[in-house]
Amino acid sequence: MNLRDYEGIAEPGDLRAIEHMAARLEGRKMLHVNSTAAGGGVAELLARMVPLFKGLGIDVRWEVMQADRPFFEATKNIHNSLQGQGAPLTKEMWDTYRIVNTENARRIDLDADFTVIHDPQPAMFIDYRKRGIWIWRCHIDISSPEPMTWHFLKDIVKNYEASVFSVASFAQSLPITQFLMQPTIDPLAEKNVQIEDEEVKAIYERLGVPLDKPVLLQVSRFDPFKDPIGVIEAYRLAKKYHDCCLVLAGGTATDDPEGEKVLAEVQEKAGGDPDIHILLLPPFSDREVNALQRGATIVLQKSTREGFGLVVAEALWKKKPVIAGDVGGIPLQVIEGLTGYLVHSVEGAAYRIRQLLENPELARRMGEAGREHIRRNFITTKNIRNYLGFWTALEKKEKVIYV
Amino acid sequence: MEEKKAFRFYECFALTTLTGRRAANIVEFVEILRTASAEAIFHHMHQYFLKPHAVMPEFPNDFAVWVSESLNEPLLAEALANVNPFEFTNIEELRAEILRIIGDYLRAYPPPRPVLPGREFMFNEGITIVIPTDIEAMQIHDFAQKLKTVDYSSIYFHFYESRLRLGRPADDFSEFLSTTLECPGVAARIKSLDPYMYSTEVLRDKIVKLVEEAL
After folding, report:
1. Three-state DSSP class for A66?
2. What is the Cα B80 distance to its own chain's centre?
3. CATH class for domain A197-377?
4. Which of B52, B128, B154 sits opposite A377 (nearest CB)?
5. Distance of CA B161 to CAs A273, A289, A318, B154, B176, Å?
6. In Å, how far is A280's CA from the nearest CA of chain B?
7. Residue B43 parent element (H or E)
8. CB atoms inside a 10 Å sphere around CB A181
9. pLDDT for res A27
10. N or C: which end of chain A has fewer CB atoms below 10 A?
């Protein structure tokens, strides 16, 4: 996989900018650190971006934290409280956080010219910086954090050169540069690459979902912020008017112990309805997710909190209209009435489902507009370009930089 | 005889930086606008022209869009949309004009209600990265062809950003056409295009058409 594979998809100017900046940075060291190798959007992004950086001549490494359940419970708590839900952490949790960060920072070679630390889990690595520029990439919504948790994290984050947020409203009062960068999807990844209708049908059949009626689909972790219960309620309201089925497809991530509990609640709510299909997809089910999205009539993402919601971009890329919660980065992707609808309630979601099932031509037009919107703004090459831009900007420290 | 210098196309992109300052109502907006950096005002009045648009915003500056979509004050939004940033060579004059418009509005009408949570205006700034390309043109027909192939950001850099760089209402295209290629007619027609009325994609088509008509 190399950058020129994106010719015909990415903006040619982006490809030229990337190659020009990369030529200046060739041979230099870049390091990415996150907390999980598989499952979740961050791991997906890194899995695609790291080979591209390598192909550009950047000496890049991706390191993953090693940790056990108590650490992930603590960091899930940090995650929830930064997103405004959940209590402050206990002293034991913070101690676990500190110990695991210290162990990992000592284990991993942190020698690099440009280090990107992803999310709060490894944020404390900054205390073990050897050299170079360090940026903290925050993928979650911290617009209304629980104050004590943010106070603790802010004390860590202020030691970086810069932070990067996915949505402008996530920015905080910080004494360091704060960049805005939306995450992206990779159109050439297994999850987004073009696949034939026959394969889509075969995968639906294998997963036990008949394609004999319109398919409503939500792909997300089983997480209360994704409101899978609300999705079932919206489906039930819409089903009174249109015979349709609902697919809730979710993966699990090693850093998400809460998922099992939510899954049980969802199964209970579904109550044996044969038209509700709850699919627990194992890691590396990208082809299946691709097929599910392509076979869907409408894609839902009824989140009540969201970092960015890349699954929305995936669905739009496949020309599907999306009905989604008006939170986080979703309004950047779902342009009201043009690429889908933003909803604020179960009733709102149900109404929009009915509207789109009633009007396939409108759904088709939204899908077309959605794909172009994603192509122009939310594909991998934009992130590659921006990371090289951050590196360049933080080294040169000017407002207008001629590379 | 002096050799003619080829026109080299530059492209660019902006990195958005966040100030963390946000306004939930018009009073907060005015307070922040008074002390916001010149870079922030420049960013919000110009970024429309540098961004790729699959879906065009209603107005070409962020202030007008926020007032329209989040404050739901169409009258004020229209007034702000009419502020042409390219008429100002000084950001302080531009700031004063925006504050004057809002002040006049607030004297005539009751203040609008605060925006819904999540719809606050976020004051941002930008860092521009400029990339020289290998795309060059020496002759007018070649110039038209190359203009079709460069990124939309090249149109921004040579037509919009040039006004700040050169410190006068001029653009690199008409300068090249008039001085190097000695085509004053087409140069004058390009120079007379109103930059505020077009996205870069539309502007590119306009300029290409004018150049091709001159072939």
Report:
1. coil
2. 14
3. alpha beta
4. B52
5. 60, 43, 36, 10, 16
6. 32
7. helix B38-50
8. 19
9. 97
10. N
What's the gap in Å between the CA of B177 and the closest CA on chain A?
Answer: 24
Chain B positions touching A376 (Cβ under 8 A) are 52-54
Angstrom CA distances, A26 to A53, A111, A317, A393, stand at 10, 16, 32, 16
- 3-state helix, strand, coil split of chain B in percent (to 5) is 55, 15, 30
Q: Are the beta carbons of B17 and A178 separated by less than 8 Å?
A: yes
Q: A214 Cβ partners below 8 Å, 6+ apart?
A: A242, A243, A244, A245, A297, A298, A357
Question: What fold does the segment set A7-184+379-396 form as a domain?
Answer: Rossmann fold (3.40.50)
A210 shares contact with chain B (CB less than 8 Å): no
- Domain positions in chain A: 7-184+379-396, 197-377
Residue in chain B closest to A398 (alpha carbons) equals B127
Query: Does A176 lie at the interface with B, CB-CB under 8 angstroms?
Result: no
Tell me the three state secondary structure of residue A318: coil
- Whether residue A385 lies within 8 A of chain B, CB to CB, comes out as yes
User: What element of type H or E holds A266?
Assistant: helix A259-270
Give A371-402 pLDDT, tens digit per residue: 999 999 999 999 999 999 999 999 999 999 99
Q: Give the separation between CA A67 and CA A58, rounded to whole angstroms.
A: 28
Confidence class for position A141, pLDDT limits 50, 70, 90: confident
Which pLDDT belongs to residue A212?
96
